[in-house]
Input
Amino acid sequence: MNLVRDHASRAWASQGAGFPPVPAGLLDQSHGLCMRGDIVNDVLYIGLTIVVFAALFLLLKGVERFER
Amino acid sequence: MSSAAAGWLQAGLLIVALAVCYVPVGNYMARIFTSEKHWRVERGLYKIIGVDPAADQKWSSYLRSMLAFSLVSVLFLYGMERLQHYLLLSLGMANVPPALAWNTAASFVTNTNWQNYSGESTMGYLVQMGGLAVQNFLSAGVGIVVAIAMVRGFVRSRTDKLGNFWVDLTRITIRYLIPLSIVGGLILAASGVIDNFSSYHTVTTLSGAHQTIVGGPVASQEVIKDAGNNGGGFFNANSSHPFESPNPFTNWFEIFLLLLTAFALPRTFGKMVKDNRQGFALLAVMVIIWAAAVGGISFFEAQGAGTATHLAHGAMEGVETRFGRPGCSLFAASTTVTSTGSVDCFHDSLTPFGGGIALFDIALGEIAPGGVGAGLYGILVLAMVTVFVAGLMVGRTPEYLGKKIRPTEMKYAALYFLTLPTVILTAAGLSLGLKNWPSPTTSPLSSILNPGPHGLTEIMYAFASMANNNGSAFAGLTTNTVWYNTIGGIVMLLGRFAPEIFALGLAGSLARQARVPASEGTLDTRKPLFVGMLVAVILILVGLTYFPALALGPFAEGLH
Output
């Protein structure tokens, strides 16, 4: 049976690393820190982190009190 | 060789390899935590961070150190993701959006590795290596040291000191996790897992289409992903991606890595309490539940239903054909009974009962063998519940390893056990209940891509996976939304740290007690009777807690 593929030619050709590797939609969102909405969100999420850990520290304090 | 024979061979070799490693790895970890000597590099680190390695901490100070360390880790990782576009090796990737960056930071610090993103299109190499992989080491280390602090609660008497968090974390990272990762990484690289810094290449295929070929330092991070029970894939397809796991050997080796430490820790426990048979008893419970999970998922995946399934000799949808159905079943069971969460096939495509077992495994609370460390302290809490129940049933004195199980200890155990169902069911209930908020098309309910019981399973699985720090996704649920990123991050943080507070509170309470000698009325916790009772207590507690959700989800779908 004859093979369809021509072995003399390369199976695939690389476009190189310069070809955009990442979906354009994602790259287009860059420089997020320049956007005002993102800064507000950063403050909110950093605040949320502190609130959750504060709740955990309070829980720990409550357990210490229960221990006494 | 038939598919079934290959499956048996893989499982058999896995059991042999884990059995061979049980004693040396377990003993080595016990030596790490009992040795008086500090290595030179460790002393240097203590000097830099200003820690006195000789100072033991009270259980609450130990916890404060752990929580403070984790808080800083979340903020640091969040910052790295938000600034990734400006960092080296970013590959031109955008800064990660705030909600996704926060979810990912909480996820990796809690050893969950739930991923609402595709690694290859969202994270640059520096964030993967210097942010996510660093947390793969540290979060695994935190889990192990909390378990060791709990074991010290049994070992020590008339004290409230449980060791030094900074010394324990430094030692387990430098003496165990890093060397293990170097050896494992070399084995993976030699077996064909890629490890490079090359940029992505776009090629033209035979059909003329463009395809992107990704690169990355994968082998060096794949190893800790599995060995640390983390599970976050370098690529979206996780361990079914040919660059993460190129052949059946790497698939087997990754399963071995994700079970190695968790199964060796009972030996460490036995060694530290100076009674290896206590470790064997816990190991027996873990092996029974793991074997049942592997057998159950394998059975249902082999059965399937319908002409296509029978022609393919099993349910092949979502299964990576290089590994086959047995490789998928073994991986799925092992990744869900530990807190790993990496996958080599897609759990959403498991048969209803196969997926139901995966969900049940996660709901067990990752105790058989569980996450590195988290599994050991989880099963120790349940062992105490079992001793207490045995005491009520047959009039035995409720004591475990020479420590009395009093109302105080039972309160800690109850709080520990109730935390996870509360977090999981509340988050799942809210997501199901918010039908029209903020709008019918963007509500949490609209994220469910499958209607009916399968959709319920998807949402239950997601929150059980997040709260139990597993991280595997059932898929079929659009979770990269503000709601799921935010509530998911909260669920992961509470699911990880709140039980640890109760576990260490319990350890502190045990450490303050004097040891009581075993008497006629003491239940021998090294015997098969105790092993059977502990298995029953685990199954009954989890079964009763999650039965309604399991009945309405996978059972209803499977029996339909």
User: Anything to note?
Assistant: The mean pLDDT of chain B is 93. Chain B touches chain A through 53 residues (CB under 8 Å).
